[in-house]
Amino acid sequence: MGHGPVMLDLRGTELTPEERELLRHPATGGVILFARNYAAPEPLYRLVRSIHELRAPSLIVAVDQEGGRVQRFREGFTRLPPPGRYGQLYDADRPRGLDTTRLAGWLMAAELRACGVDLSFAPVLDLDRGVSSVIGDRAFHRDPEAVAELARAWVQGVHDAGMQAVGKHFPGHGGVAADSHCELPVDERSLVDIELEDLVPFERLVRHGLGGIMPAHVIYRQADPRPAGYSAYWIRDVLRARLGFQGVVFSDDLTMAAAAVEGGYAERAHAALAAGCDMVLVCNDPEGAAAVLHSLERYADPVAQSRIARIHGRAGRDWPHLRADAQWREAVRRLAHLDASPDLELPL
Description:
This protein is of the alpha/beta class. The chain has one domain (12-64, 82-338): TIM Barrel. 40% of the residues lie in helices and 11% in strands. The protein has helices at 17-23, 41-52, 83-92, 94-114, 144-160, 191-196, 199-207, 232-242, 265-275, 286-295, 302-309, 319-323, 326-338, and strands spanning 6-8, 28-33, 60-63, 65-67, 70-71, 119-120, 164-170, 186-187, 212-215, 219-220, 248-249, 280-281. Strand 1 (6-8), helix 1 and strand 2 (28-33) form a beta-alpha-beta unit. Helix 3 (83-92) packs antiparallel against helix 4 (94-114) and helix 5 (144-160) runs parallel beside helix 7. The longest helix is centred in the first third of the chain and has 21 residues, at 94-114. The two termini are 32 Å apart.
């Protein structure tokens, strides 16, 4: 059995019998974890192991562990500063900013790999234009060249720890004020403006081995009347054909308000896959997830399955060996200086 095209979520810190059946469904390919699935590193390790042992090849286990407002696993993990802090350090001391960003990417991935988690949906490659509150300091910087440079350092660290990186939200969410979790944003800028700025970090990171990309639930009206996550223009023509991206395209969560433009959950999943997504996320709605699985029971895309198979995490160190590592101690020390003030978690 290969990887199916659907990524689901779970209720708690242990698998229920019903969830085991859903995860064995042929259309299931992965699991995304949230704060409700986390109590401490050891229970997380047991949960991930139970997911991986359900079938072969094992399901992809992912999480949003960006840092700042979006960090699902906290107690027992290193608190990660918001990415905007790396941008501030970069402005003050470019070499140190890049090296600290690389260390942060390594630390994030190494701690997740110590618990068996395959993937974090990071880094954010959007530009902090001062327009979008839902992006804000989740972005590294305002300048596209700086974002590209900082993200490349982050991705290098992630790779060194045995994990692939997933850039989001293609082709850029920073130019709209609306929050796609609550409404459908429309970006009215010209295609030329988007290409000259927002696309730059994605283009650069594709050339440097980005393993996955997540399109935005945003309409870029001057290019296509459909949101990017449902747009063959953005995914097939721009991302695949023009930029040459060969990794996994993950939809953003199909239960978000902006995704509703395509109808019910099954219709949304089919529209995203038809546009070129390899895997679709359906979170926080068990009935909707079941409907999507049922509608895709006979769906098969061998090319997508081969891409997904390559995004599994590589072997990582366990917690005792990781915490004894001098690089881990140095990364924790540096990040503590960047995390001087608390951030409220963003309820994504």
